[in-house]
Amino acid sequence: MVKKIAFLGLDNAGKTSIITAIRKRFGFEEEVMNLTPTRRIDRDSFRFLGIEFVRLDFGGQKQYREDYLKTPDKYLSATDMLFYIVDSQDYNRYVEAIDYLDNLILYFKETQNYLPISILFHKYDPEIMIKYPEISKKIVVLKQALMKYSETFDIFFFETSIYDIKSIMDAFSSGLSLLFDKMELMSQLFSEIGKNYNAILIDLFDSRGITIGEYYRPHLHLQEKMKIYNLYIKVQQRIVREDRTILEFSDKFDSGDRFSGVVEVLNFGGLDFYLLFIIEEEENLEKTIDILDKIEAAKPEMENLILQIIQ
Asked: pTM value?
């Protein structure tokens, strides 16, 4: 079985930058700065949970868009997932972006392909949004206009930035999860463990950094999530480099609160996964041991869920 996912949007929306970041996750900044506009369609493939995916990066220049819409069956048939990218900073082209999406959705409606659609408001860079708060207000209005599609399609919105790799991976992971049954059960399991033992965060990633399940403490600040994720990437690199299966670490948030973390490599169904969990540093060692024991006891259930998902 092969799944087809398409990245579409206007020229200069950031489609190729997003795909490059997803593909590399670290050390991609220089490559992104030197990207050239995509000519027609770039293709690559990857495996996720044992399924082969073909990823299509559609060039967004006007002549290409016209060609796709002139013969849509040639380019868009049998698409399983659509990631539609909007340059959030280029609000003068919002209407043009909606018109293009209108035409794409019209094709999918006519062919009765009611695929899930993730709309990414890209270039949602933190510094820019602080400096120009009116952009966020315009995006809210745009989201309201785009909700008209939700009567027929499952529509999801994300704000992403090349300067926040977690925002990109979250959007991509959420989109892929829609193509698998029972994926939400992993997050439910982590939520149960996390709430009972007051964990800060529990995450299960595949080897490419795609999220399988996630729990994080309510009201955990965005900066704290980003700090944890950036630490995770560094720890994962070290695990691969040193050929280890587990690595512990500790750090502190900007507030001064300290936390401890563990990244462990697990193999379920012949596939490697990375389990990350973060807890507050406790003087009470017994409490820390309790949550470690609970995580250990939950591994057979994690494996069972993975096997159900990939069946």
From this structure: 0.90
**6-20 as b/e, with b when 16 or more CB fall inside 10 Å?**
bbbbbebbbbbbbbb
Q: 310: part of which helix (H) or strand (E)?
A: helix 285-310
CA distance 70 to 310: 37
* Site of tokens 């997803």: 22
State the number of CA atoms in the 13 A half-sphere of 108 facing the CB: 22
Rounded Cα gap, residues 142 and 91, in angstroms: 10
Please give the pLDDT value at position 144. Answer: 92
Which residue ranges in the chain fall short of pLDDT 70? 25-37, 282-285, 287-288, 311
Q: What is the DSSP pairing of strand 155-159 with strand 211-216? A: unpaired
147 and 205 housed in the same domain: no
Reference 126, options 99, 168, 159, 97; nearest CA is 159
pLDDT of residue 218: 87
Query: In terms of residue numbers, what domain contains 18?
Result: 2-177
Q: For every residue of 232-289, which 3-state class applies, written as one string?
A: HHHHHHHHHHHCCCEEEEEEECCCCCEEEEEEEEEEECCEEEEEEEEEECCCCHHHHH
Residue where one domain finishes, among candidates 134, 155, 177: 177
One domain for residues 229 and 148: no
pLDDT at 219: 84
For 130-152, write each residue's pLDDT tens digit: 888 888 899 999 999 999 999 89
